[in-house]
Recover the amino acids of this structure.
């Protein structure tokens, strides 16, 4: 099936857990136990860095290696999202041997059980992978992958048009028609599993007042944003979860775009002359944020019509996330891409009070609604999906009323690739599965 021995893929980030190295040792239950303890125990000798996805082990109190091939997880309470969480990349088994050898530099020497082996990593340039001929599911269909980091969307498209890149993500919406016209290229679009939103810090004035937060929601013209910056194939957002996730509450009333209503709410909150506030925006395109600066500028103009005078502020991506986690922002454009398709993966990390701890928060609104919290915990503790869905349906109604966010888009899933790429299908979770992909001659 191998039509060509090398494929070039553009990708901004390299997911190290797909790689294998010469330090590979047998995968046993002890590796899972080691990974859990390393992630959750701050005093573990190899607990290096920030473990943003530690929430995936919620309610897990211990992991036992029963034998080489059996792992037992002990939980303090029933936890319905457990199986979905445990299948995520963040809980993948890691090699204790490699971690002990490389310590803080383990991320430079990734080890896993996947179909490709790491050959070379030149930071900010490329990663070279070669086929793992011992892969348990059969060797990959290509011998070598080169994953290139090309920050500019337009440059990446030029590379793909020349044939020096076979697959690319982060396509500029204005380029959709250009790709469709090219007989050698394919543009894939499908429903997305994401949400783009403005997080309003409810612990900072003036967003301590729900009327101000509602004013922001009424000041944003979601339809025009989607038409202008998502080529009309995204979905204007009214809920924290996308329509592709079960329990989506379509009965929730969308925020009407109304300058008059926004001004009225501001006046009722004690701001008859409007407000001046910083609007933070990320300087990196994301699946839910196709053209960050242009979107921020459009929102700035829309907010101004309602008397919300927004000064645009941005930082380098890593600094941006760090500052958001510390709650330094008044309001900020951000988003989320679903990890496992479970609604809890949106509600709990992004909006629950448990995740509003400054310094490590993912709840960037610092919203701590008690009624919402109780619903989310109840939903976690029942296993019947229809019962869980009822709790999430109510939770969306509460968020609509309390308005810690101004959700604005559920972006479509968009990828582009050359027509000679065979058997490639963009995964709804944005996982890149390439071991059964090949290039035709």
């Amino acid at each position: 099936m191998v039509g060509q021995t090398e494929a070039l893929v553009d990708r901004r980030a390299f997911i190290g857990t797909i790689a294998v190295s010469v330090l590979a040792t047998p995968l046993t239950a002890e590796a899972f136990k080691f990974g859990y303890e390393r992630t959750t125990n701050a005093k573990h000798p190899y607990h290096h860095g920030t473990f943003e996805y530690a929430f995936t082990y919620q309610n897990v109190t211990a992991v036992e290696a029963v034998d080489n091939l059996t792992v037992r997880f002990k939980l303090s309470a029933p936890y319905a999202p457990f199986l979905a969480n445990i299948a995520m990349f963040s809980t993948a088994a890691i090699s204790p041997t490699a971690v002990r050898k490389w310590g803080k530099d383990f991320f430079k020497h990734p080890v896993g059980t996947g179909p490709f082996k790491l050959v070379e990593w030149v930071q900010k340039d490329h990663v070279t992978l070669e086929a793992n001929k011992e892969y348990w599911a059969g060797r990959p269909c290509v011998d070598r992958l080169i994953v290139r980091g090309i920050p500019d969307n337009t440059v990446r498209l030029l590379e793909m048009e020349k044939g020096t890149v076979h697959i690319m993500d982060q396509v500029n919406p204005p380029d959709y028609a250009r790709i469709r016209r090219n007989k050698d290229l394919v543009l894939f679009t499908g429903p997305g599993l994401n949400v783009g939103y403005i997080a309003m810090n409810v612990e900072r004035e003036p967003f301590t007042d729900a009327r101000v937060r509602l004013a922001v929601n009424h000041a944003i013209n979601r339809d025009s944003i989607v038409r202008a910056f998502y080529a009309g194939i995204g979905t204007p957002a009214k809920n924290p979860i996308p329509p592709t996730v079960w329990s989506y509450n379509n009965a929730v009333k969308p925020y009407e775009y109304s300058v008059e209503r926004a001004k009225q709410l501001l006046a009722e909150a004690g701001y008859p002359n409007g407000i001046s506030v910083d609007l933070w925006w990320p300087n990196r395109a994301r699946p839910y944020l196709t053209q960050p600066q242009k979107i921020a500028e459009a929102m700035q103009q829309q907010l101004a019509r309602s008397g919300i005078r927004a000064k645009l502020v941005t930082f380098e991506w890593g600094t941006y996330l760090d500052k958001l986690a510390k709650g330094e922002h008044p309001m900020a454009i951000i988003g989320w891409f679903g990890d496992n398709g479970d609604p809890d993966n949106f509600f709990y990390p992004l909006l629950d009070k448990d995740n509003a701890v400054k310094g490590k928060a993912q709840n960037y609104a610092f919203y701590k609604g008690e009624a919402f919290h109780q619903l989310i915990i109840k939903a976690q503790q029942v296993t019947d999906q229809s019962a869980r869905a009822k709790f999430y349906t109510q939770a969306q109604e509460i968020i609509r009323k309390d308005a810690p966010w101004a959700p604005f888009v559920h972006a479509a899933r968009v990828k582009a690739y050359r027509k000679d790429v065979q058997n490639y299908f963009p995964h709804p979770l944005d996982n890149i599965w390439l071991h059964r992909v090949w290039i035709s001659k």
In short: Residues 35 and 91 are 7 Å apart (CA to CA). Confidence is low (pLDDT under 50) at residues 1-7, 9-22. The chain is about 30% helix and 20% strand. Residues 22-96 form a domain with the Dipeptide-binding Protein; domain 1 fold (CATH 3.90.76.10).
